[in-house]
TrEMBL record:
Pathway: Cofactor biosynthesis; coenzyme A biosynthesis; CoA from (R)-pantothenate: step 1/5. GO terms for cellular component: cytosol; nucleus. It is found in: Cytoplasm. This is pantothenate kinase. It comes from Oopsacas minuta. The keyword Cytoplasm applies.
Amino acid sequence: MSDSPESAPVQSIIPTDISQAVESASQDRNLVWFGLDIGGTLCKSVYFETETSQDKVESNGDTIDIQNLQHYLMSSETYGSSGIRDSKLMLKCVTIGKLKGNLHFMKFETHRMKGAMELASKFNNVSKIVLATGGGAYKYKEDFKQTLGVELIQYDEIHSLVFGIHFILDNVSREIFYWDNPNFSDTPEKRFLSLAPSSVYPYLVVNIGSGVSIILVRSQKDIERVGGTSVGGGTFLGLTSLLTGVTSFDEAIALAEQGDHTKVDKLVRDIYGGSYEKFGLPGTLVASSFGNMNLDEKREKAKKEDLAKACLITVTNNVGSIALLCARISKVERILFVGNYLKNNVMSMRQLAYAVEYWSGGKNKALFLEHEGYFGAVGTLLQHMN
Ligand SMILES: Nc1ncnc2c1ncn2[C@@H]1O[C@H](COP(=O)(O)OP(=O)(O)OP(=O)(O)O)[C@@H](O)[C@H]1O
Ligand SMILES: CC(C)(CO)[C@@H](O)C(=O)NCCC(=O)O
């Protein structure tokens, strides 16, 4: 089988040369289950701590490594230089396939994959196979085999995402939320919706990762990638780093929180002196992102904070308007925004909520999910175990 994504099947097809390994790992009930979503910026990892692995701890020769692994993962919420565990998202007592257990959510920067593998190599024999999706499931397949002797079983990233969303909606009651009055009050209310997966269809899912994929989901299995844009979370992080010198996403967000993008962007009112009423464009609308930065006097006054905020608004508005166009073309009202760009990024969520509500005349609503970046990784476990 080719490792190229172009030739990837919808679900994993296990090649002959590893089918035996997979078969024996499945029969032997793999001791430790990991689902990875190895993206362009972040590697998301879901660890399924099962009752089975607890049984094995008592009776198996691999006992020490499993206990060490479990202890290593659970005794801290940070690992190495970029790894973190999102302990608040942990799910207790979920059932996947025939197994019950707890789901733990972790992530680290993909460019640190080599270090992560070195770390993993310290826990021998705990897993013969690891389920994986995202571009890195292809890019790092051989490295996993060579370094760890682990077979990466590949699953398609968009199908994994949708399977993961469906499962989480089915298992978590406070998952979907929206922002009430996103632009009219200083502290907009975050409100949860209880929507059964079956009543959420059809919907558009806008996955804001490094780049952005927009998927029309008619049912769990009837999905279509209806759009995308290369201007996504990677663009925000890249441009903000370039313009302000920040070195992390958290720093970029913190800077943007203090900024004023109107010092950088050219607004409708800068051009009209007010609103462009005939076509419903308010004076405060951005007419041209970064459109004031060709002027020396404006450039001198723009602070790093303002530049960071302008980057955030540029990316967010662009994603919002492409999402809305896709929703119109696809004739759907519900738009779910996911992906790690939204992590601790209330500014972008509010902006998306406001833009979607405003430009659709209240017809469309922007919805968000608590497990924002982990659906793909969860989806690999579901596809393999069900
Ligand atoms: N700790 C972090 N480090 C780097 N980027 C972060 C971090 N937290 C949030 N982000 C944002 O999340 C984006 C990556 O999101 P996500 O993990 O959903 O995508 P990805 O899977 O890496 O990308 P793609 O799906 O395009 O391959 C980054 O581009 C950045 O904007
Ligand atoms: C390439 C992927 C699918 C990798 O997850 C993502 O980064 C993406 O959808 N980028 C946008 C590509 C485009 O449609 O222009």
